[in-house]
Amino acid sequence: MSCGEPHETDCSEVLDHLYEFLDHEMPDSDCTKFETHFEECSPCLEKYGLEQAVKKLVKRCCGQDDVPTDLRAKVMGRIDLIRSGEAVPEHDVTVETVTAEGGVQATSLRAKEA
Description:
Residues 11-44 form the Putative zinc-finger domain. With 114 residues, the protein is an alpha+beta fold. The protein is built from 5 helices and 2 strands. It has helices at 11-16, 18-22, 28-40, 42-62, 69-84; strands at residues 91-98, 104-111. The chain has a two-stranded antiparallel ribbon with strand order 1-2.
């Protein structure tokens, strides 16, 4: 996505690092560049707003659930693979969650290479 206008910080760079910005995982100087870009670029600002809303919704709906240790390790491992640029194999992942009634619900997810 690009608005077609020239910016000091390119739209693709902003969108590639949007979650680092949202999660406060970047240096202050980069945050300042992104904030300036959002002031100039309405499509990127809109994308930022949407991702911020999704993140808040997920936190509100799922923030109280305990994440199984093995699932967290698998997810973090895949994130590390993606960040390092290695190929991520496609496979099924089954996630079990405990329902409010005390039952167990299994959900099968298809993980694909990014």
